[in-house]
Amino acid sequence: MGSLPSETLSAPKLAFYAILLAFCFSINSTEAYDALDPTGNITIKWDVMQWNPDGYVAVVTIYNFQQYRHIQAPGWTLGWTWAKKEVIWSMNGGQTTEQGDCSRFKGNIPHCCKKDPTVVDLLPGTPYNQQIANCCKGGVINSWVQDPATAVSSFQVSVGQAGTTNKTVRVPKNFTLKAPGPGYTCGPARIVKPSKFATADKRRVTQALMTWNVTCTYSQFLSQKTPTCCVSLSSFYNETIVPCPTCTCGCQNNITQPGMCVDGDSPYLASAITAPAKNNFAPLVQCTSHMCPIRVHWHVKLNYKEYWRVKITVTNFNYRMNYTQWNLVVQHPNFDNLTQIFSFNYKSLTPYGIINDTAMLWGVKFYNDLLMQASPQGNIQSELLFRKDKSTFTFDKGWAFPRRIYFNGDNCVMPPPDAYPWLPNSSPRQFISVLNLLLLSFCHWHSYWLLASEIISKDIANYCLFQVYGHVS
């Protein structure tokens, strides 16, 4: 191979390529940074509570300090590698998935002898003598904002062959957290000041003998290679419905990937749902152009003199998943003037200090906190009423649509800006409002007939379906 020209090795060019190379290698590392939750993480705290003849008893607690990202079923899986030849004699509130080779022990057999144990939470209904506080929820941990009381999970472990003093105990290495799949990267365990605990009467404080912490951060890029949700848009002032971009989460390809999706009216739907898969939570999505398990639709519904109204619809296209404790995070500049929200909980998030443009939305408990799997009932919807700030409010240039939307902590793909519903330039505002009222009245009586008749455009038919039922065909 010939040598490079001498001029390519000049100092300025070498510096430029070095910076470019460093930037390229840093792309994946920045994926773990979430601009809307910059300090969010999962912290694993390991408290040594007492010494045993050959080791110690510790309480391991998993704290979810993420504002809106939670761990859903089938729950968390925690792993590590022992620093020496430690074994687990017994556990409460959790269990290892494998016992390992314990043949060297006579009589009393440890709970686990593996060098790299993997621990899971126990299920609800576990006998009380096997429980501790904050255990036994099947590994499900809610987000910190949504329900801080259930954003914690704990188990107790009795460790042998580990040393019986602060100087002889060695912290485990190579912590891994799956929730339930990949996505979290854990740093090394760091010894910190021993945790302190107040008694029930608040009159006495005790402390752990030794404590170390592990911090795990989330990366959507590591969690899945393709997006899991998308956003579609519509408005009262334009009959065009902007769909999710084609092939957002995958493309239909029944030749090389048969069975990757199924039509809702297919006679094989029931057998496809129960067919064996790599795991029971592998998505089986309804065949669509976008192939996403979740679609969020933002519809600019009405325009009043002092207010404007938005309708949000979340549709589940996954036949294998009910989304429990779901949540949305929406960024829009008018959230500082949110007046009323219907059938959703709301909390303002301020990732940029005093700027109030980000909202977290989630369902009302026992009402719509469960997003059913793909079916006629597989959608939830709400409406938002905003007060107009005359210095910033406009329907022009897509201002009325969100800047970004997260579903369960994952960033949803937005349509390209040039596809947003445009505002008619020549139509008087009074005409738009009257036309909208006439169409709305007509839709309530003829929505599905419109779609079937093919007498008018499918866009108008879909407009009617959204106005009345909250979904399109």
Description:
This protein is α+β, with helices and mostly antiparallel strands. The protein is built from 5 helices and 28 strands. The strands form 7 sheets. Strands 1, 2, 4, 7, 9, 10 and 13 form a 7-stranded antiparallel sheet that branches. The chain has a 6-stranded mixed sheet with strand order 15-14-18-19-26-22, with helices on one face. A 5-stranded antiparallel sheet has the order 23-24-21-27-28, with no helix packed on it. It is globular, with a radius of gyration of 27 Å. The N and C termini lie far apart (60 Å).
Give a brief outline of the structure.
By secondary structure, the protein is an alpha+beta fold.
- Helix share, percent: 10-25%
Oligomer: single chain
Structural class: alpha+beta
Summarize model confidence as the mean pLDDT. Answer: 84
Q: Measured on Cα atoms, how large is the radius of gyration?
A: 27 Å
List low-pLDDT spans: 1-9, 11-30, 426-434, 444-457, 465-473
Number of helices: 5
Portion in beta strands? 25-35%
N- to C-terminal distance:
60 Å
Count of DSSP E strands?
A: 28
Q: Quick one: overall form?
A: globular
Q: Summarize the biggest pleated sheet.
A: 7 strands, antiparallel
Protein name: COBRA-like protein
Family: Belongs to the COBRA family.
InterPro entries: COB_C, COBRA_pln
Organism: Stephania cephalantha
Topology:
Elements: H1 11-30, E1 42-52, E2 55-64, E3 77-81, E4 87-92, E5 94-96, E6 118-121, E7 152-160, E8 173-178, E9 184-186, E10 190-192, E11 196-198, E12 205-207, E13 210-218, H2 220-223, E14 229-235, E15 238-242, E16 261-262, H3 269-274, E17 285-286, E18 294-303, E19 307-316, E20 323-324, E21 327-331, E22 338-341, E23 344-349, E24 358-363, E25 370-371, E26 379-387, E27 404-407, E28 410-411, H4 429-453, H5 458-468
Parallel strand pairs: 14-18, 16-17
Antiparallel strand pairs: 1-2, 1-13, 2-7, 3-6, 3-8, 4-7, 5-6, 9-13, 10-13, 11-12, 14-15, 18-19, 19-26, 20-25, 21-24, 21-27, 22-26, 23-24, 27-28
